Amino acid sequence: MNKKKIFNDPVYGFTSIPHGIIFDLIEHPFYQRLRRISQLGLSHYVYPGALHTRFHHALGAMHLMSQAIETLKSKDVEISKDEACGVLIAILLHDIGHAPFSHALEHTLVNVHHEELSELFMQKLNEEFNGKLDLAIQIFQNKYPKKFLHQLVSSQLDMDRMDYLNRDSFFTGVSEGVIGYDRIIKMLTVKENELVVEEKGIYSVEKFLIARRLMYWQVYLHKTVLSAEQMLIRTLRRAKELAQQGVELEASKGLKFFLYENITLTDFRKNRDDLLEKYASLDDVDILSALKNWSNHDDFVLSFLSKRIIERKLFKIKMQNEPFKSDYVKDLRHMIVNNLPKGHSEAVDYLVFEGKESNSAYTTNKDEIKILYKNGKVVPMSDASDHGVQPKIITKHYICYPKY
Prior knowledge:
Layout: E1 6-9, E2 13-16, H1 20-27, H2 29-32, H3 54-74, H4 81-92, H5 114-128, H6 134-140, H7 147-153, H8 159-172, H9 181-186, E3 188-191, E4 194-198, H10 202-220, H11 223-244, H12 253-260, H13 265-270, H14 272-280, H15 284-294, H16 300-310, E5 316-320, H17 326-339, H18 348-351, E6 353-359, E7 370-372, E8 378-380, E9 394-401
Parallel strand pairs: 4-7
Antiparallel strand pairs: 1-2, 3-4, 5-9, 6-9, 7-8
Helix pairs in contact: 3-4, 3-8, 4-6, 4-7, 8-10, 11-12, 11-16, 15-16
């Protein structure tokens, strides 16, 4: 069977699958599940075209990784065939542990980070593929001696970010997210085992960082998207609360299991194979089907939230730089209680809620992007003289409540 396939990516055009094992991994049910995990959660409630999946994204990131490998090899960076295959597998599988609707439900159904689950999936696949993922797992865990390979998978200038900014911009139509990914990749090289960017690529990196900041506030943390996803989180929390009380809920077998059981990372490690199979049965379809069923549930909170999400009658959301004053929140809660059906005043805790979101386009707290000057000197991006993006965390406070 010919495993060197090509596929037509709407962002990059015709791209190829370079190794037989990668074709086999893509064919695996664990990876095929990513077709049913939306890349941007409920962002399509604001940007109708944002219906692409983690499947698309991982393939795109792998394509960019192929380009990065070729660029580095052309600059006499030693990358063996096995290392190239390993880093391609690492980026292909980096998101395989995502929960339904991606980040929206990451700590709701299962309180385990998706990267930890991705690592468990990779270990399971490694056993199925007779140890052929050993190198990929070392790179993913940052335990391989060539540090720059891990940086291509996970850093402030990795192929993951390079693809999702480009792809999410394409499918949302938000042009502010467009980046010069091809030029940035061409400017990559390695110095003292670390990934660096040649001096002439500094402006492209600045554009990349600015684009990332704009995409966060315009797409990922758009206030209407935030409202929809917070409603979804609270719907699942309510469902889990009812399940823990023994209330019967209509849901798929996989969803029911994680609603009625409290599974931790320790549980996953102790009973890995069985729990991964159960987790892999979960995708966006389970959640949407449950929401449709729960819209008619006897529990007021569960049915109210589910129906509102299905019908896109989203909560009003207000955002500001400072926390909301307690008197304002108290008055708002009182107003909502007065609009609730008699006997359901306790629902206000689920229907009026506050929170905050923070974002930094660039941080100095972890491995910085390094700039390689012509004189051979390597300078962190924050110290580069031409650097126009200062590390700064922006925090916004929000409050959500139903519109009446």
